[in-house]
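Recall that a protein's primary structure is simply its ordered list of amino acids. Everything else, from secondary elements to tertiary packing, is in principle encoded there. The following example makes that idea concrete.
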Amino acid sequence: MQLTKTLSLLAASLSVLLAPVTAAPAPGTSCHVGASWPDHHDCHKFFECAAGGHPVRKTCGPGTAYSPEIGVCDYEWKVRSCRAHSWTHGAEEGASGSHSGWDKSKNEKGHEGHWSGAGRH
């Protein structure tokens, strides 16, 4: 049982490391420990250089996305790379749907509405 779990974990780790992702360093290269950079295929994911100089793909928490400008996960609506995708932040908070690109939920400053239109501010 333990061997099966270990092999499954190893296979999953290898598939992530060997997946064709342009943002990850080429196989055989190393990165600076502590450095982080976005996964250009998914704004909710990013890479962080772990001990030994190996990149590790990580996922931001619910409602957040990786912000290359500040180097950490931030609210989705603040992350430029996520603005090109339509999403409804307020549905997670129990808001009653959205219309005309606006979601009737409150942001961290207490203002209503989050833009969910593609590429608009």
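The chain is about 15% helix and 30% strand. Confidence is low (pLDDT under 50) at residues 6-22, 86-121.
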